[in-house]
Design brief:
Blueprint: H1 7-12, H2 15-26, H3 37-53, E1 57-61, E2 68-72, E3 81-87, E4 107-109, E5 112-114, H4 118-139, E6 145-151, H5 161-167, E7 176-179, E8 191-196, E9 198-207, E10 213-214, H6 215-218, H7 225-234, H8 257-264, H9 270-278, H10 291-296, E11 300-308, E12 318-319, E13 322-331, H11 337-350, E14 357-366, E15 369-370, H12 376-389, E16 394-398, H13 405-410, E17 416-418, E18 434-436, H14 437-455
Helix pairs in contact: 2-4, 4-14, 12-14
Bound molecules: ligand BES and zinc ion.
Length: 456
Amino acid sequence: MTIAVTHTTLHAMRASHLEEYYQFLRFPSVSTDEAYAEKVTECAHWLVEKLKSIGLEAELHPTPGHPVVWARNKHQAGRKTVMIYGHYDVQPPDPLELWDSPPFDPVLKDGYVFARGATDNKGQILAHILGIQETLEKDGELPVNVHLVIEGEEEIGSGNLGNFLSQNRDALKCDIALVSDTGMIARGVPTMSYGLRGVTALEIKVTGAQMDLHSGIFGGAVANPITVLARMLATLHDANGHVAIEGFYDKVRPLEDWEREAWRKLPIDADAEMLKETRAPELVGEKGYSTVERIWGRPTAEINGIGGGYQGMGTKTVIASHAMAKLTFRLVPDQEGDDIIKLATRHFEKHLPPGVTMEITPGHSGPWYLTDPHSPFGEAAQRALRKAFEKDPALIREGGSIPIVSQFRSILGVETLLLGLALPDCRAHSPNENFPLENFDAGIRLNKAVLQEIAA
Ligand code: BES
Ligand code: ZN
C-alpha cells in the first residue's frame, strides 16, 4: 500500500535531510555477513562525521565485532540525561529478485523511501539526529544532556554492546533510555510500546550415515536424517498451536484481563491488517488467543530454515548424510532463554529415534522487556507523542526483540521508552522495506518534543 504524502510534509522536509538519509542508506551495513564488514565500518565512520558536524562530540568505539558509535553534547549539571539508542546495521537484503529497486540505492515513491534499513533502523535513528541538529541550530543547546549510542550488531543480538555499557558505565550515567526501533499500530497513530518479546535461537543437525548414499542400494536399511528431522520438528506444536515442549509455559506470566481488554479496544482491525499485509490465505496460531495477544503476549517456537539433501534440478536418488534446521523461540515474561534451550534440547533428545545422532548449537538470545508506561518518564513520552502527532497515543507491547534494552536496566539502571515509527507495512527484514517521509518528519518533531518533555 502506498499513500501520497501531503504537500506540507514534502515542503517541510529539508532537501539536505533527505540527501543525508540517502547517503546513510547507501551503505550496505549488513552485520551478519562478514563480506560486508568493511561497509559496516564505513557506515559507522559516516555517522561519526555526521554527529560531529552538528556540534556533538563523537567517537567510534571498536569492539571484537562491529564498532559502536558514541556521541554526546556538552553536559550541564542539574539537567536530565537521556541516552538515545539505535542501530546502523541492517538485515541481509536477500532475496534480491523480490525487490522492485536495488536495496542499497534508495528511491522515493509516492512519499515512501524504499531501501534496506529505511525503517529498521536508519530512518528512525537519523530522525533523532536531525531533531537534535535542528534544536542546536535554533537554540544553540539542547534542553537535556544526551548520549547517542548507535551500534552495528543489533540484528545479530548485540553481543558486544553489553561489554561496552559495562566498561563505560559511569560515563554513560543517565536517567532514561530512548529508542525508536518499534512500530506504530497504524499510520498517524502515535504508539508507545511498553514491552518486547525476547528471543533465543538454536540450530539442530541430525546425522545418519557418514556420507550421502545411493537410495536403491541403502534405502530401507539406514535412517534417513531428513525424515527423522521432519518428524522431530513436527513434535514442536500440538494440534491447537500450543508449543508441545514439556515445561515451555511453566514460567509464562498469564495475560491479565485489563491488558486483553485494552488491546481489544485499540483502534485497529488487527486480523484484517495482518491478512492484507501478509496475503496469507488465513490466520493461524495458538488457540484461545487473539492475533495481537499471540504476537505481543504469547511465546512461540518457529522454524526459520531447514536444509538437507539434494535440491538441484531433476531427481537424485540419494539418502543424505545429514539434515539441519534453524529455530528461534520468542519469549515472554518470565521465560528465560537458557531454560528454553535446555527444555528444547531435552525435547529433541526424547524424540530422537535410533539410527541417527543429533547436535544442538545454541545461537544468540535476548531477553523480553516490560516497563510501566505510566511512570513519570512514560507520561512525558506520551505527552511528546501527543504533541508530535496531535493524537492520543496507543499503548502496546511488541512481538519483536531489541536485545540490549534489558541491559540498559541491568547495567545502567534505567528504563527504556520505546517510541517507534515503523508502520505495519514497512516490510522490515523483507524485500521492498520502506519508510514514509511523513514518519521521518514526525520522528524529527518527536525528538524535539520528547527532549523538551523530559526536561520539563
Ligand atoms: N526493530 C527490530 C525489533 C522490532 C521489530 C521491534 C518489530 C518491534 C517490532 C529489531 O531491529 C530486530 O529486528 N530485532 C531482532 C533481534 C534479534 C535478531 C536478536 C528481532 O526481533 O528479530
Ligand atoms: Zn530489525
